[in-house]
Fold Glutamine--fructose-6-phosphate aminotransferase [isomerizing].
Amino acid sequence: EKGGFEHFMLKEIHEQPKAYRDTMLGRIDNETKKVQLPELKMTEEQIKNIRNVQIIACGTAYHAGLVGRTVIEQLVRIPVETDVASEYRYRSPIVSKDTLVIVVSQSGETADTLAALREAQSNGAHVLAITNVVGSSIARDADDVIATLAGPEIAVASTKAYTSQLIAFNLLGLYLAQVRGTQTAEEIAHTLAAMQALPEQVESMLEQAEAIKGYAEQISKHEHLFFIGRGLDYAVAQEGSLKLKEISYIHSEAYAAGELKHGTLALIEDGIPVIALATQENVLEKTVSNIKEVKARGADVLAITYEEHVAPLLKSVDQAFAIPKTLPLLSPALSVVALQLLAYYASLALGHDVDKPRNLAKSVTVE
Ligand code: F6R
């Protein structure tokens, strides 16, 4: 049942290239180089009228929504907010019939997400669900559904569902951009080609899992560590931190790299591991300054970046892990794989029950 893998989580990490391919299958027209989402009931006119987007989810799906916010804002230039479902309902969200609400849920059964969906619908919003279970309550109640085709996810810690959600957000963002004319045909074709390269790129990363395993064994000896990054790297930092806490029980925090000096830097002391995500090239120099701030306080820094930046970064960091080159909006779909492996191997090194971490359930049907 685990297909030769020791745990479901490792199997599911390895299923990601297939999950990416399956989620893209039939949704990219290779002749016209366009996105097609025939399942959508939303009309072109409705799409043209969207004034704002609200993304709502819990946990890892919320972290996918943080990436989704940037993807949609960049591609479509409409304002997007991302909320945790248990908070959204109680903040009197401002919704109109021109608000597109996107709920994200692997299981499609998360109580808070389902309640937020109903709240948004009762306020007149059109609700689109990105879910991995097409027969779920959330899929049934939503006005539109984009299915992630990750296949069943058994491990409590979500991996392939999260990355498939990233693919779904990119497809949706490109589709909205196509209809609203905010990206040229060339730009769309270029991004689609980069997306189609992702599965092989993930495969090449999985072949380097041993390097991550070695680093995971080092950090498993620590009680606290930090993840830092800017922009989409910050969103991935949050997911990496959750994954590590969830299955290794090591305390970690994710910080926007520029926020450290507003308080958290006080916690950086000799030997503390800091994992710096550094893929967003528009802010790379700024991230490097933040890395230097923690290095100066004795932190032990691992950078996750593109090959071309490894040599220069090694002047400021202790170790680096290179990921394959992709477009800025797509980098989370690669960098997170390194962090999933890190959490997995740290949990393994500590002898924890990787697939069934304490206190947690796969599907959270209570509010
Ligand atoms: C973490 C994890 C949880 C879920 C969250 C939402 O690895 O799996 O944080 O992401 O409980 O679940 P779904 O996506 O089923 O709504």
About this structure: The chain has a mean pLDDT of 96.
